[in-house]
Amino acid sequence: MGDQPQLRPFDIPVALRLAECPDRTFPALHKDLGISISTAHAAVERLRQSGLIYADARRVNHTALLEFLEHGVRYAFPAQLGTVQRGVPTAYAGPVLADEVVAAQAVVWPDPHGPSLGQSLTPLFPQASELPSRCPSVYAMLTLVDAMRMGRARERQLAMEYLRKRFADARCVTA
């Protein structure tokens, strides 16, 4: 009998990238997300085993992924807030929600070269702070996932609205 499959935090950006661009190869996922090819392969396999990707292809089960993001991600990968640091804006301070949510302080993924100062949030994977230049579309979606992980009801509702719209309008963006 095999081990129980268990999602890892960096599986989420892989799922987000495949949601908008299902034909991405493992080398392309490596380039897009800054993870190794073997990490990308293992993530896809875990996503398949969990039902978030269809077994026959690298196509994301959008309904299942949205359900997990709405109801499960904050419990599976709870937000861990830290001290005030320089970093890359995320959650309600990220590019999608920044104009809609007024907050006293930004939330950032720690990065000494980041453009903002705010309360640090441990990102779902170490290369997250590279996403604005590496893969802006995944950066935007991952900030929405962080809003789901740490936000109040209003921020979570706004984040889900944007995620549903992005999945409905999914087009492969190669940059």
Structural Rg: 15 Å
Q: How far from one another are the termini?
A: 41 Å
Question: Number of DSSP strands?
Answer: 3
Mean pLDDT equals: 92
Descriptors:
3-stranded mixed beta sheet, 2 domains, mainly alpha
Describe this structure in words.
The model has no long low-confidence stretch (mean pLDDT 92). Helix content is 46%, strand content 11%. With 175 residues, the protein is mainly alpha-helical. The protein is globular and about 45 Å long.
Topology:
Blueprint (H helix, E strand, L loop, with lengths): L10 H10 L5 H8 L3 H14 L11 H10 L1 H4 L4 E9 L16 E5 L5 E6 L9 H4 L1 H15 L2 H16 L7
Parallel strand pairs: 2-3
Antiparallel strand pairs: 1-2, 1-3
Helix pairs in contact: 1-7, 2-3, 4-8, 7-8
Give a quick summary of the entry.
The longest helix has 16 residues, at 153-168. α1 (11-20) packs across α7 (136-150). This protein folds into 2 domains: 11-75, no CATH class; 77-168, no CATH class.
